[in-house]
Amino acid sequence: MSSQPLVSEAPAPTTTGPCEEVTNENLIKGLPVNEQDYAIIVGVSHYASLAQLNAPVTDACRLRNWLIKADGGNLHPKHVFFIPSAPGSIMPDQLAIDKALSDILELAEATPARRLYFYFSGHGFGANWEVNGMCLPIWSPSFYNAALSSKAYLDLLVEKDLFKEVYFFLDCCRDRKINTKPLHSMLGGSRPGGANTMAVLMYASEYENPAWEGMMNTNGNLQVHGYFSRALLEALNGGAVNNSGDITITSFLDYVREKTESYAKEKNQTQTVRSDIRNNSYGLDYVIHKTGRTPGTVLTIQFKTGGDISLDGPDLSNIKSGVVQAGDSWLIPLGKGYHQITDKISKKSSFITIDGTLKTMIYEF
Amino acid sequence: MNSNAPTFKLTVSAVGVMSDFAHLTVYNGFLEDIARGYEKLDLNLPQGLYSITLKLDGNIVKEHVRLTEDTSYDIPTPPVYSSLVADRFESSHEYYTHNAQHYSLEPTVPTDDTTEGGAIFLFFRYTDLEKRKELNTKQLSLGNGFSLLDADRQVLYRLEGNNIREDTDTGWMAFHAVLPIGTYYLHYSGYKFHNGDGGPDDIPPREIPLQVFKSNTCLPGLPDKCWQTQVFLTFGYGPIFPSMSVFIAPRKSGFINNDEGNYRIDGLRHKFHNGVYYLPEKVLLEFEQGQWASPMKGLLAAYVYFSSPETDNEALFRNVAQDLPALLGEDTPDVKALQVMAAQYYKDPIPALTLSQPCMFLAGVRAVIRASLTHPDIIVDDSLLEDITDKLYCDMVWTSYLPAPLPATKQQTGDATSGGSLTDSIFNVVERIIGDEVTPEEIGERLLQSQTVSTLLYYIEKLNDDLNVNDLASRLQIPPNVVKKTINHILAFSDSIKDVKSKPEQFNISNIDKLKSIQQ
């Protein structure tokens, strides 16, 4: 690769920064890791003149940690370029991100690469439907320059033709901002065209719409997350697995879309994920991650009134039936899917969705 | 899932306004996406639990289904809001619809009955009376700040006084002028206001090209051979430009509030605005049958098709692209832009044509700018089109840009396409940017407020070598000639301040030297 030289040295990517230390246990055990995979994870919570955000750095940490874990992305930690913002700092700037990208491109040129994850969480705006500005910490109305063009960066990564797969996740607003020209990467060099690179692009919201963050309950802990980022992590952590224990492109996109919408709806907001796929010669059932786990939840159904109850599974096979009294409860392990509970006496009926992300769940009927 | 389970028909239909554009997804009981498509899905499925999601215009409707027999499931489409005051839109009201119909048939400015060509009809309004009361307590005219300019950017009409009809109570304004064929510009001078939070806000100036299309003699059965270009715009605190809908109808028909074709055009535009290149079967069928009763539908469909990576219907749209010049006039900017776009789509050579005026669709202008990277002469030197390429707003499907200030009013000209020199009305980049600033520091700072100048200097500073005009043009998404001119202006300014000690740091020797090497 002959990329254009950068004018000054950007600071080395932070390996951990605000994140908890994680290791890839496969490295310690001498087991294989995904040496051909790379990631650039950018989380910008701190801005010079825009409102501070609570979720981006935390969410970026969680994704970074998933990527490094042996049962997650199984990446070599040195292949994960984690670029968080920090209080009182105007870093990262474009150079910091381009430097990380430049390092990855060099590595990918030296040894065949399989996959690149690019994640940005922070403030953003929609320059138009296909170009999103990813705001850097220094962004302000006077520093219109300080926003990276989603399209220019994705085009660069795809057209380099160095990766078989590129996953591009943007958790930022897409509110319209007129007459803006988000920046292209400083990196140049040859661009064979990208015919061999599949790109999966996910925007946290539709053009002209905001992406939200909010306080959410994560395994009993209250934390602020971007709705999209939370759905993304849940999907990768098993929420998107099909009944074979695999995460396919379709199951992944569906899960993230569905969960983001439902998290927003819980807070009386609307947020619709937008996805685009380029050059997908593998098909939508392509497995992007194998978990080996079959998703399921132990459901406790608490009955508020008595009745003659029937619980049916996704294919209408009966899972459990019986007469219950008010105050009774059923404890049932259920697989991922829709279930229907019906009181044969009152004819009252409800659908229960088990998405596989929770180990236990309580449902009142 | 038991493969021996009996199967049943599940028919899912979106019903109601804009159902062609309602996107349906069916999930099986295991949360797997098993079918998707627009308007109607016919499926054969095993018994089980399913869910259906309908998405339209930002609304999401979810339903669960227990499938134990053949089932037909209709999902009403959610209410749709649009600038178009058509009968079946939630945001249409009798007090708007009636007046839109009335004034689309009655010019609001004096007209010469012998005028051939067409007309422009503008209808501005709030979403409803309540919004008018909330957002415009002083009942200001919706025409404030608007003017209609001719092809030379001379003011034909200001949207005020006797030129318009309006009701500032219910909140609407109509303007209707019979005009010769050609390009016109709807100019808006901007507006400062206090938003809902009480903070200052502003809507910047903007100009939008509008085309009055060639009279048509080759379409049988139309009530009039002249076209009327109809523009519908909704107001909030000020004009909400991305909501703008444009239609082209026979002049004598005026606006028809229950025209099925208008719903389809609005749906196409809305999808296109969101980067969804979807053409309903019914639209494709109309083209296959050669039904060209609506030029706007044809233009929109062609732009949608040539923006899409899909290769279905290649032959059909080759025909559409070939038919357009005869139908709408071969000199029409949108027709030329579509020919460029079609060439890019089919990977054919760029046709030998030139454009000096912007077309109505932003996608067309962008296609021409892309073509200019390899064919710089496609954009006429010093033309209005060249001038606006670095001032485009990209927030709607229509072309719009930050305009030069308004020239003085003149009487309506007989021929808008006289094509007088545009150069007189064009300021050079730097002169336009600079106002009353006098010191080099002030001028430099002001220059840097220009998106093009500041972004160009940013790239110059950050990138070391291999920089050339085409690379910068590609990064800035402007024609190479505009890059060259901008560099010339920066160098001219830099030269004039070479002896000044205090100047903006971006104008340092290193950057200036790089600019000079690019210029050579």
Automatic annotation (TrEMBL), chain A:
Under what name is this protein listed?
Caspase domain-containing protein
Q: Where is this region: Disordered?
A: 1-20
Annotated Peptidase C14 caspase domain ranges read 38-278
InterPro entries assigned: Caspase-like_dom_sf, Pept_C14_caspase
Q: Which Pfam families match?
A: Peptidase_C14
Please provide, alphabetically and separated by semicolons, the GO molecular function terms listed in this UniProt record.
cysteine-type endopeptidase activity
Organism equals Chitinophaga ginsengisoli
What are the GO BP annotations of this UniProt entry?
A: proteolysis
Coiled coil (UniProt feature): none
Q: Which domain of life is it from?
A: Bacteria
TrEMBL record, chain B:
The superkingdom of the source organism is Bacteria
- The identity of this protein, by name, is Uncharacterized protein
Q: Which organism is it from?
A: Chitinophaga ginsengisoli
